[in-house]
Write a structure and sequence with these properties.
Number of helices: 9
Mean pLDDT: 89
CATH architecture of the largest domain: Orthogonal Bundle
Largest sheet: none
CATH topology of the largest domain: Tetracycline Repressor, domain 2
Order of helices and strands: HHHHHHHHH
Number of domains: 2
Helix content: over 70%
CATH class of the largest domain: Mainly Alpha
Strand content: under 5%
Number of strands: 0
Structural class: mainly alpha
Oligomer: single chain
Shape: elongated
Distance between the termini: 93 Å
CATH superfamily of the largest domain: Tetracycline Repressor, domain 2
Length: 191
């Protein structure tokens, strides 16, 4: 009689492997077999740990979104003032996010699922909420929402553009979004 091998990290390895397979092949090219091969586990482990592919994809994308949101919190939690926060936003875009083709692909795959499936939409809502909360340490809620849209937009553009994104343009956009609104006396008068 064969003894069962104790493998407490197997479930986590499967989730991590799912993200790697999705990054390499997309959700459409992902299967239980490919994930099991990537994780180095028997195919039967897939159904033991996960009811179906949607459950596995949900847990994998939740882990991915939490990792990105954790990065926002670390980057924005370590700055002391609005000027440093503006630079932190530019660093989030150009250092943390745009440097990883893997993360770029995973983000777009999640967005595609979220556009069709409410379960995955909740993952993106939770991710955006955490991102905006981190931004709100330094900016008002409306500005934080605009900055979050700028960050997400950069992600999409980076996936589609053939030219690299210029950090100075990002810094200018962040500065424009976070600039104090003009006072009523600064607005042009109508004659």
């Amino acid at each position: 009689m064969a003894t069962r091998r104790f493998d407490p990290d197997r479930r986590d390895r499967i989730i991590d492997a799912a993200l790697e397979v999705i990054a390499a092949r997309g959700v459409a090219g992902t299967s239980h077999r490919k994930i099991a091969d990537q994780a180095g586990v028997p195919l039967g482990s897939m159904t033991y740990h996960f009811t179906n592919m949607d459950q596995l994809l949900g847990e994998a994308f939740r882990r991915f979104a939490d990792t990105i949101a954790d990065g926002f919190e670390v980057r924005l939690g370590s700055v002391a003032n609005a000027d440093a926060a503006r630079q932190a936003v530019a660093d989030l875009i150009h250092v943390d996010l745009l440097d990883s083709q893997r993360d770029l692909v995973l983000t777009l795959e999640l967005y595609t699922l979220a556009a069709r499936e409410p379960v995955f939409r909740q993952i993106t809502r939770d991710w955006m909420s955490r991102s905006r909360h981190a931004l709100e340490r330094h900016f008002d809620p409306a500005t934080s929402r605009m900055l979050d849209a700028l960050i997400e937009g950069h992600f999409i553009h980076a996936a589609l553009d053939t030219e690299p994104h210029d950090r100075s343009i990002t810094v200018d956009a962040v500065n424009r979004i976070t600039a104090a609104p003009p006072s009523p006396n600064d607005r042009p008068r109508k004659f």
